[in-house]
Amino acid sequence: xxDRPRISACIIALNEADRxxxxxxxxxxxxxxxxxxxxxxxxxxxxxxxxxxxxxxxSFEGYRAQKDFAVSQxxxxxxxxxxxxxxVTPALRASIETARxxxxxxxxxxxFARATEYFGRFLRHGNAYPDRVLRLFxxxxxxxxxxxxxxxxxxxxxAVATLAGDLEHRAYRSLDDQLARYRRYAAMMAExxxxxxxxGHLHNLIVNPCWRFFRGYVLRGGFLDGxxxxxxxxxxxxxxxxxxxxxxxxxxRD
Length: 254
Description:
The protein is α/β, with parallel strands linked by helices. It has helices at residues 20-25, 44-50, 63-72, 90-101, 175-195, 204-219, 226-251; strands at 7-13, 32-37, 54-57, 78-83, 86-88, 109-118, 121-122, 133-138, 142-143, 155-156, 160-169. A hairpin with a 2-residue loop joins strand 6 (109-118) and strand 7. Helix 6 runs antiparallel to helix 7. The protein is globular, with a radius of gyration of 19 Å.
């Protein structure tokens, strides 16, 4: 239909030359692609521009701030936000196109499941799946408005509907990459919690990691993903432990 809403795809990136091509290819149904780059040196910007993306260079000020800026640069009010390591599957694309052809009249935003690829196979249980994320929304009624810069999320004023199909998340290039990310995220979350007035206690170093492991591996069936599920649950628990250790140290650094 000629009057159907147009979609702007918004991506943030840094040195994603090995992954940006697949991400962009999965967004071919969108009416424009905006990529905000925070200083890539591996040809990410050139590759994205060659594939038709509008590339904007901007210093990194935080994940939420970077994504919010990307949305502000979009030409259209309906935006679909992805990271460079994510891809829209054919099933999800079909769901988005159906909602778009209906004028997005069901909701102000749409969420869908995200499936994380983990050492050669997608995790289908535990804390990793379905991991529903709200990434398609009307920016006039919502956006990246939550205050924290890490583990950021979208909120909208209005109804939120769920679409069928997965968003593929190819998050980790290697175990070292995963560990480095968790360490960086733990530091950022601890700083956010500290500034927000959250207090950490020594029992958090034991109780919270154990609960994260138990919830994901046992209650949510992470064990059904075999050794990948066990490894993922263990490293998640380690991340929680480091986060609270850093929070504790921030409280007692003086």
